Amino acid sequence: MIRLYIICEGQTEEEFVNNLLIDHFRSRNLHPIPIVIGERGRKGGNVEYQRLRQNVRNSLRQEKACYCTTLIDYYGLPSDFPGKRESRAKGVLSDIAAAFNASMERALRDDIGENSMRRFIPYVQMHEFEALLFSDPVGFAVGISRPELQTEFERIGNKFATPEHINDNYNTAPSKRISSLIPGYSRQKPLVGVLAALEIGLPKIRQECPLFDAWLAKLETLQPLPA
């Protein structure tokens, strides 16, 4: 079984990996292992580069036959995170993501070393994990037992080319839009997020979110490494 460490932004992403990705990859002989960013007693959120670097380095160095990837949100990353400022200047979403991923990988390679970084697959979620939930407004509403919100979810999603385009302004990022409809959402994110994602299903999310789909497709090609 190929071991894949996924450095997650928080508990919501961790639950997503545990409840959807592990089952998906089992038949491909790939075992995802979520690691919430940070150190013991200071886990989740605040995705500073130094914290991410530490987790990536530890994951890649603790065993030579593993891979490592990331599941972090573009929205909310500090402006001094490698690649954040430069990527924002790109006009096309796919170019923004590609530029950021390349800069993040380059910075980590400089700090961790070329040899270990051959087993690293960079990924940033545009613009937040919650964008994935807009892949299916009906499934989103049903999954969280709020069918009356279907129309509002549809109204939001219809404004954008894909869910991944839902913008990252403080007031209009995906999670902010959800919070305006579901008071207290921030405290329920792990539960609400995984219930909605399970109802929607990975096939629908992949169909509507091409950057996310490309990430999973790349992970599906990983081959066993010598121990």
Kindly summarize this structure in a few lines:
The chain has about 230 residues and is an alpha/beta fold. Helices cover about 50% and strands about 15% of the residues.
What structural keywords apply?
single chain; 227 residues; alpha/beta; five-stranded parallel beta sheet; two-stranded antiparallel ribbon; 11 helices; globular
Distance between the termini: 12 Å
| Low-confidence region ranges | none
**Number of strand elements:** 7
Provide the gyration radius in Å.
17 Å
Q: Helix and strand succession?
A: EHEEEHEHHHEEHHHHHH
Number of helices, where a helix is a run of at least 4 consecutive DSSP H or I residues: 11
Q: Mean of residue pLDDT?
A: 93
